[in-house]
Design goal:
The complex is a heterodimer of chains A (109) and B (158).
Chain A lengths: L2 H8 L3 H10 L4 E2 H5 L6 H13 L3 E6 L2 E6 L5 H33 L1
Antiparallel strand pairs in A: 1-3, 2-3
Helix pairs in contact in A: 1-5
Chain B lengths: L9 E7 L3 H9 L2 H4 L11 E6 L6 E6 L4 E11 L3 E6 L13 E10 L2 E9 L5 H15 L2 H14 L1
Antiparallel strand pairs in B: 1-7, 2-3, 3-4, 4-5, 5-6, 6-7
The chains are: A alpha+beta (109), B alpha+beta (158).
């Protein structure tokens, strides 16, 4: 999957696009993002989680609140690509390590 | 206004049924045997992935067209527990020797198995080049409106 595709999938949902539009005006807490949207606050949290996993928004703790923002340096797409890349890479790595370990055991026999 | 918000590091963890020595050797000397072909980023298909086993060694791809695609170099070499690699490819997919992002991989024994943890960090250093990638994104995918909003936000916070 290309890095464009990861972010594009995250943006396929209209509510998520509205969440991003709100964040484009500046960092916001979940309550501020949810206000006026026709979905529950837990649903907004869920959308934020998807956007975060796609690397399109980042978050930080501010006292008791968690503040969300659009990635200020525009790296969301690249981060999303790397996240996918390392999943694929490590799956291949695991298979190869275990193949090598099995071969070593055979030699010891 | 300061940019306090950074992209989080990419963190991954897998457990493999092998001792750390085997895991470390496959990750490094065996790089070519597991490195994903589907995600090659060079101008030609990847032929061989190479990692030179010492601090200062390079890691790079030999491409089908004979060219080398540089990825970075080895910053720490501590077999069989840890390797730290510089990944110097920016968000514009170009090698930049002045760009530093780090890929740290640790190999920790867990019974008869090994936990392999990977962290790709300092992604914020890709910032300047990220602008280019985003512009391309806009052109190819046509998210004009949304990305214009992103650009406006950047102008305000930069």
């Amino acid at each position: 999957m290309t890095y464009e595709a990861v972010a594009f999938t995250a943006l396929s949902d209209p509510t998520r696009r509205r969440v991003l539009e709100r964040l484009s005006r500046g960092p916001r807490a979940v309550g501020e993002i949810a206000a006026g949207l026709p979905v529950s606050r837990p649903a907004v949290s869920q959308h934020l989680k998807v956007l975060k996993e796609a690397g399109l928004v980042s978050d930080r703790q501010d006292g008791a609140r968690r503040i969300y923002a659009i990635d200020p340096k525009g790296l969301g797409a690249m981060r999303a690509w790397l996240d996918q890349f390392w999943d694929v890479a490590l799956a291949g790595l695991k298979a190869e390590i275990e193949r090598a370990a099995a071969a070593e055991k055979d030699q010891d026999r | 206004m300061s940019l306090a918000i950074k992209p989080a590091p990419v963190k991954k963890s897998i457990t493999v049924a092998a001792p750390p020595e085997t895991a470390f050797r496959v990750f490094t000397a065996g790089l070519d045997r597991w490195w994903p072909r589907s995600h090659s980023i060079g101008e030609a298909p990847l032929k061989t992935a190479v990692l030179e086993p010492a601090v200062g060694g390079r890691w790079y791809g030999l491409l089908e067209n004979g060219a080398e695609a540089e990825w970075g170099d080895v910053l720490a070499w501590e077999p069989p527990r840890r390797v730290l690699l510089a990944w110097r490819i920016g968000a514009d997919w170009k090698f930049d020797p002045a760009l530093l992002t780090e890929v740290e991989v640790t190999f920790t024994p867990d019974g008869a198995a090994t936990r392999v943890e990977l962290e790709h960090r300092l992604l914020e250093n890709m910032g300047a080049a990220g602008e280019g990638a985003r512009a391309q994104f806009d052109g190819e995918m046509g998210w004009g409106g949304l990305l214009a909003l992103f650009a406006a936000t950047l102008a305000e916070t930069a």
